[in-house]
Amino acid sequence: MQTHILGFPRIGANREHKRLLEAYWRGQATRQDLLDMGQELRRRHWTIQAKAGLTHVTTGDFSLYDHVLDTSLMLGAIPERFLTTDQPDLDTYFCMARGDAERNVPALDMTKWFNTNYHYMVPEISAAPLKSGSQTIVRDTLQALDLGCSAKPVLLGPITYLSLAKGVKGFDPWNKLDEVLNRYTHVLDKLRPLCSWIQIDEPILCADMSPAARAAFPHAYKILNQAGAKLLLTTYFDALDDNMDLALTSGCAGLHTDLTRGARALDSILKGLPREMTLSVGIVDGRNIWKTDLDRALRTLDIVHAGLGADRIMLASSCSLLHTPVDLELETALPKELKGWMAFAVQKCAELRLLARAMNGEDCAAELEANAISMRSRRQSPQVTIAAVRERCARVDEKMTRRNAPYPARKNAQSWLGLPLLPTTTIGSFPQTPEIRKQRSLFRNGDITTQDYEASMRDEINKVVGIQEDLGLDVLVHGEAERNDMVEYFGQQLDGFCFTANGWVQSYGSRCVKPPIIHGDIDRPMPMTVKWITYAQSLTKKTMKGMLTGPVTIMCWSFVRDDMERAEVCRQLALAIRQEVTDLEKAGIRIIQIDEAAFSEGMPIKSRDKGAYLEWAVENFRLATSGVADSTQIHSHMCYSEFNDIVQSIAAMDADVISIESSRSGMELLEAFREYSYPNEIGPGIYDIHSPRVPSVEEMENLLGRALEFIPKERLWVNPDCGLKTRDWPETLASLRNMVEAARRVRASLS
User: Fold this and answer.
1) Collapsed DSSP state (helix, strand, coil) of residue 183
2) Where are the domains of the chain?
3) CA 193 – CA 228 distance, rounded (Å)
4) Alpha helices, DSSP H only, in 381-511?
5) Annotated binding-site positions for Zn(2+)
6) CA 682, CA 679: separation in Å to the nearest integer?
7) Domains 2-9+40-380 and 424-750 share a fold
8) How far is CA 307 from CA 266, 272, 310, 313, 734, in A?
9) Would you call 690 a catalytic residue per the annotation?
10) Are 640 and 664 in contact (CB under 8 A)?
11) Where does L-methionine bind (predicted)?
């Protein structure tokens, strides 16, 4: 049986991609350095796949920033504001990704890739003709062939690309379909003689397709198949369900299905698969770090084999391994038992080859028995179950998920805060400077004492509080200097988690995160944040906002155990956060923000499945936040979400104040809140923290004016889009100074 993966992590085992990319942006590395790094990583990743024994290595999956952005360059879908020359170059590429501070050019919008924690750059499609396109995928494929590999290029499919795009000035992106297809056909003509398969990703087939997308699909694939290439139509993240007819009649030579999240459709696929179509079986989970249960996988593959025969089956990862860390062997400090339950990208390649060997009748008894021992160890381990946690969850009742009074009464009870009209605040974090990271590293390595480390963090909190007072912010934060990550920090203080040293995955561009691993029941042995936040409050007479990460986000941004329903994992987390919220209130902290940045990210990608998720996600947020008095103000933060479909659920969360990303969209996201008449307070972000440019006072004034069209002035807060952890101090200070001034001017005009 043929074996392949849908893509490999881009960042390098030691985050070489991140480090050189940021050096390039700082002017400390050359363009050639960057290109050489990309070529070296691609070669390394192809070698890993080839040595694992995979039939094909994947090309075109590497990106300097984002694969959707790469597709825009391949097609020449480049908005005019980014062009400084007739021929797009690296400067154009990074300008589209990050904006240009000197020319005051805002970046493309950025949002979540389906229901993952990866972010993509939203294509902008206008009536203007497409520009010259890029052919880097052809170059990469030729390089893989030079290594002696069987190359399988991957392209993001045109239907998914246009479904994710937004039209400019009312232009309908689907009007560009034929022009886009012409570019795809040109690329396919170049690739066809080089490889036996071309992977074309259409994950939109597993989501809710618009009528326009469904109507375009048959025409698009009729055109693409006329190029004569052997196309593998690739779907993932859910089952095909309502769009199965489009996939089965696409005319492609092969179809890939995700059996880790879409196994319910397998019988229908086997019954309906055309005789001339190969089935690529996504049997190894590309989105989690647990070993594959090989016995269970082989039972599934036996069913597929009985229906199709070996010559029509390919074994694959469920989706790109972009969402997993690179190599488990780098984890020398993980407890041996826990490590034995896991597989990262390198190990998942080996699992695929082992499954193929077993299906081909080779003697794999020893390897299969070792896998079975790992499965039993995990099921039977005392680290997995805590009776007290299970009992606490069983005692949760409806009263625990409701505030004492509705929002209007709480608003009156919170008048003691004495906040002005349009109160200003930040989302929580301030720049994590090299000195902060150095102190954290010294402490982690045992080179400084706990006392010295905590003293350095108190110094940083002193600095941040002073800066905020000088800026004139109304509600302050402690800056989160002591936190390595908004999820890992909490996981390190909770039972049921373990952590990696090198388990990094890409979130966007050079931004990498190291998700904690939830392997057992979750408990909070002691307070997690009270010491730091109460210290910060002691430094100022202004109100200090306590900062916590919410249960849904901790779950979504961790590698979650797969032996328990996610709703129950989230409930355990909610009870732990509830304990922290009440301890903060007892310590005198009366504004508490519980961030749910991943609230919409956790949703299933099909509308019909979203209701059940939203019900338990809202309930668990309320469980975490409803143990406080009416006079305590609860905030939540959400970023890079589409709110139209979930605004009622956001209202049901019943936070007193929510802050949301909205600057890149020019406040377009707030339309949902006006149509629904959102009842509580909102802080729409008025500057984009993912770009180094400093927005002017006038720009932020205009955004506030736009926000006032949607939100009454009595319920409007002023804040950035997101936390400031990744930014440098000079741009942070300049931006916040402008933000406070913009709020002052608009406040004066309103009064």
Assistant:
1) helix
2) 2-9+40-380, 424-750
3) 10
4) 387-394, 407-413, 434-444, 450-471, 488-491
5) 637, 639, 661, 722
6) 9
7) yes
8) 11, 11, 9, 10, 64
9) yes
10) no
11) 427-429, 480, 595
- How far apart CA 280 and CA 53 sit, in angstroms, is 17
Q: How far apart are CA 349 and CA 347, in angstroms?
A: 5
In the numeric block, the tokens 């409930």 are attached to 571
| pLDDT higher than threshold 70 for residue 627 | yes
CATH number corresponding to 424-750: 3.20.20.210
Res. 211: pLDDT tops 60: yes
How high is the pLDDT of residue 668?
A: 73
Place of tokens 């079986």: 281
In Å, what is the CA distance from 402 to each residue of 122, 398, 406, 625? 38, 7, 9, 9
- Between the two ends of the chain, the Cα-to-Cα distance in Å is 73
| pLDDT above 70 as % of the chain | 99
Computed over every residue of the chain, the mean pLDDT equals 94
Known binding-site positions for L-methionine: 427-429, 480, 595
Would you give the DSSP letter of residue 695? -
Which residues, in sequence order, are CB contacts of 127 under 8 Å at separation 6+?
168, 169, 171, 175
CA pair distance 60, 327, nearest whole angstrom: 21
**Phi and psi at residue 632, in whole multiples of 5°?**
-90, 130
Binding site per annotation, positions for 5-methyltetrahydropteroyltri-L-glutamate: 15-18, 112, 511-512, 557, 601
Tokens of 522: 């979750």
Enter the pTM of the model: 0.90
Structural contact between residues 68 and 123, judged by C-beta atoms closer than 8 angstroms: yes
Specify the amino acid at residue 40: E
Closest CA to 557 of 499, 616, 516: 516
Q: Which helix (H) or strand (E) holds 203?
A: none
Please state the rounded mean pLDDT for residues 218-224.
Answer: 98
Residue owning tokens 């893989």: 144
List binding-site positions. 15-18, 112, 427-429, 480, 511-512, 557, 595, 601, 637, 639, 661, 722
CA distance 511 to 65: 10
What band does 734 get if pLDDT is binned at 50, 70 and 90? very high
Three-state secondary structure call for residue 696: coil
Q: Is 686 exposed, middle or buried (0-12, 13-18, 19+ CB in 10 A)?
A: buried
298, 299, 302 from 306: Cα distances, Å: 12, 11, 6
Q: Is the pLDDT assigned to residue 664 strictly greater than 70?
A: no
Dump pLDDT digits (tens) for 556-568: 999 999 999 999 9
What phi and psi, each to the nearest 5 degrees, are found at residue 100?
-135, 110
pLDDT digits (tens, 9 = 90+) for 513-544: 999 999 999 999 999 999 999 999 999 999 99
State residue 377's pLDDT score: 95
SS3 of residue 474 by DSSP: coil
Q: State the catalytic residue, choosing from 56, 119, 635, 690.
A: 690
Question: What is the per-residue DSSP string for 585-615?
Answer: HHTT--EEEEE-TTTTTTS-SSHHHHHHHHH
Provide CATH code, domain 2-9+40-380: 3.20.20.210
Of 446-450, 641-645, 670-674, which range is least confident? 641-645
Contacts for 431 with CB less than 8 Å, ≥ 6 apart: 724, 725, 726, 727, 728, 729, 732
Q: Is the pLDDT of residue 155 over 60?
A: yes
- Find, among 642, 640, 643, 691, the residue nearest to 661 by Cα: 640
* CA distances to 56, 72, 97, 290 from 48, in Å: 11, 29, 29, 20
